[in-house]
Amino acid sequence: METSTTQETLQSRLANPARLVPELGKIGAALFAATGNGAIPQTTISLVQLRAGQIVGNTYLTAFHTANLRKAGEPEARINAVASWWDAPHFTDAERAALAAAEAVFTASPHGERVPDELYARLSAHYDEKAIATLAIGLGQVGFFIPLALIGKPLPGVSPAEQWRD
């Protein structure tokens, strides 16, 4: 039985969004500059972005951020444990707070507020305000690209320059 979500050819649904909407390059560059400002470790940004890709169930984003972590030299045990970060021994308390923030932002809460004061206090115990804002921008960065990944369906594991349909 074939599902309607099966991608029948090895190409994305969309042509390269950066060619379709050239302004995307400036937006992407600004987001990368903001998350790379040094206020929070780039590894932490990559971990929370990987978790966001897992939460929204997007293979492209999960593969992309996994590859970025591997390139940065992260051990496989840490990469593999992101999906169950809350009970894995591989993360610092600061990383756990950041991963909890990703979980809160990208998961609907049946109890009301997604980022309660308790979670903000956990973040504040490890990060100053600039770092928390940078973390929020890092979550927003992956959030910005989620619709393109879900709608355009780029190919997992294919370089960014080659993943989009011509």
Structure explained in plain terms:
The chain has 166 residues and is mainly alpha-helical. The protein has helices at 17-20, 23-35, 42-55, 59-71, 76-81, 93-106, 117-126, 129-152. The longest helix has 24 residues, at 129-152. The mean pLDDT is 91.
Q: What would the keywords be for this entry?
A:
single chain, 166 residues, mainly alpha, 8 helices, globular
H-E order: HHHHHHHH
Biggest β-sheet: count, sense, barrel? none
Based on CA atoms alone, the radius of gyration comes out at 17 Å
> How many strand segments?
0
In percent terms, what proportion of residues is strand? Answer: under 5%
Q: What share of the residues lie within helices?
A: 55-70%
Shape: globular
Mean pLDDT, rounded to whole units? 91
Stretches where pLDDT falls below 50 for ≥5 residues? none
Q: State the secondary-structure class.
A: mainly alpha
